[in-house]
Amino acid sequence: MARDIAAILGANSRHDGFYEGQDVCVTWTFGHLCMLKEPADYTDEWRRWAISRLPMLPARFGIKLIDQASIRKQFDVIKTLISKADEVINCGDAGQEGELIQRWRQNAPFRDCGYHRSLTRLYARASAISVRRLTSTIYTMPDYRAPWATGFSA
């Protein structure tokens, strides 16, 4: 989908992790960049499972970047581009799980690079025709606070 969006926007110069055009960059994620924190990420007491420690419920669920070289590399590309951006439009998967993953991705890089400007969301299927049709239908993303707000998927 990033390639289709880049072509529509004239971002035809391919770089490592993004496309670039006049006043526009298009990047992407792949698979799952983030995951829910493990119990031990919250407290050492939860490092070893014991029935006496149940329930293990943190005050606020958190996310972390998956510890994999290719993921860290692309995440760094995204953070660098976001830190230079005047506007960011998130065009990721709009399904229930996809929306949750996009919001996880949104929170970490935006927080880490200090981006506080508006973030909008383009909801489109993975085709150039769909993207062209929907570029005028971009929504402001609401503040997002809980990883379970969109529900769990089976």
Layout of helices and strands, plus pairs?
Layout: H1 2-9, E1 13-15, E2 18-21, E3 24-27, E4 34-36, H2 39-42, E5 63-65, H3 69-84, E6 88-90, H4 96-113, E7 119-122, H5 128-134, E8 138-140
Helix pairs in contact: 3-4
Structural features:
three-stranded antiparallel β-sheet; 18% strand; three-stranded mixed β-sheet; 154 residues; alpha+beta; Rossmann fold
Explain what this protein looks like in three dimensions.
The protein is α+β, with helices and mostly antiparallel strands. It has a single domain, classed as 3-Layer(aba) Sandwich (Rossmann fold). The chain has helices at 2-9, 39-42, 69-84, 96-113, 128-134, and strands spanning 13-15, 18-21, 24-27, 34-36, 63-65, 88-90, 119-122, 138-140. A 3-stranded antiparallel sheet has the order 1-2-3, sandwiched between helices. Strands 6-7-8 form a 3-stranded mixed sheet, with no helix packed on it. Helix 4 links the parallel strand 6 and strand 7 (119-122). Helix 3 (69-84) crosses helix 4 (96-113). Mean pLDDT is 77; it is low at 143-154.
Task: Compose a concise summary of this entry.
The protein has 154 residues and is an alpha+beta fold. The protein has helices spanning 2-9, 39-42, 69-84, 96-113, 128-134, and strands at residues 13-15, 18-21, 24-27, 34-36, 63-65, 88-90, 119-122, 138-140.
